[in-house]
Amino acid sequence: MSLENVQAYLSKWNREKDIRIFTTSSATVLEAAETLGVEPQRIAKTLSFRKDNNAILIVAAGDAKIDNKKFKQAFSEKPRMLSPEEVLEKTGHAVGGVCPFGLTEDLPVYLDESLKRFSTVFPACGSSNSAIELTNEELYIYGNAVEWVDVCKDWE
C-alpha cells in the first residue's frame, strides 16, 4: 500500500513511472547501493525523529550520521528516533522504505547538507525494494521540505 501511495503522490509531477521496483532488497543503504549500482553515499536515507511530541523527517546522504550536538543546535532537542511502529504510524511507510513522499501525516521534512555533494540522489519510495533518482531540487520540492539543515557528521 505504501508504494502505491508514493506512486499516486509522485503522479502530481508525472514521475510515478520513474520509480524503480527491484526483485532484491533496497531496505538498507548498502543493499540499495548494490541494487542500484551506485555509491552508498548517494542513497538518500530518511530518518524519523521525535520533536515537540510529534515527528520530523531528515533526509541525509547514505554515509552521513546524525551529529547529536548539531541536531540539538538546530532543533533545540536531543535526537530521539521513533520506534519502527511509530515510523509506520506517522509516515505510512515501514522501516526500509521510509521516504518523504505520500506520508499519512503532514510531517516537517528537512534535507541535510550532506546531500548537496551530488547532482542526483536515490530516496526510497515507500517499500523495501524501490527507489527513484532525483535532483536535490526535485527532492526538496517533492518532499515538501522545510529547509536545508546541517545536522550530520562523518561525510565530509
TrEMBL record:
Gene Ontology MF annotations: aminoacyl-tRNA deacylase activity
Domain YbaK/aminoacyl-tRNA synthetase-associated residues, every copy: 26-139
Pfam families per the UniProt record, alphabetical: tRNA_edit
Top-rank lineage group of the source organism: Bacteria
PANTHER family with a match to the protein in the record: CYTOPLASMIC PROTEIN
Record protein name field: EBSC protein
